[in-house]
Amino acid sequence: MEWKIFWTAFATLFLAEIGDKTQLAVIAMTAKTKALVSIFLGASLALVVVTLLGVVVGGFITEYIPTEWLQRVVAVIFIAVGVLMLFGKL
Question: pLDDT tens per residue, the chain (90 residues)?
């Protein structure tokens, strides 16, 4: 286990998820239904599956695209999404 990478992934995802639309949706669902355990388990499973897809796709893509290029592409996508959100397009 590479603990430095583990904690970097944890911290990055944790900070990215605080206050995002997913968390707000979970808050709204919990307030409406009061089904805390069901919502927790469903949301947790969804996050695990999405993360698994990211890991699998990332591992597959790096077989064909150099890591530094992949990082650049991801950075451009992040910037584009940020700009779109800034101007209310997302």
Answer: 999 999 999 998 888 888 788 889 999 999 999 999 999 999 999 999 999 999 999 899 999 999 999 999 999 998 998 899 889 887
Q: What angle do CA 61, 67, 72 make, to 5 degrees?
A: 100
The structure tokens 């990478």 sit at 5
Distance CA 84, CA 86 (A): 5
Token readout for 64 is 């064909």
∠ CA 81-87-89, nearest 5°, is 65
Q: Quick count: other Cβ atoms within 10 Å of Cβ 26?
A: 16
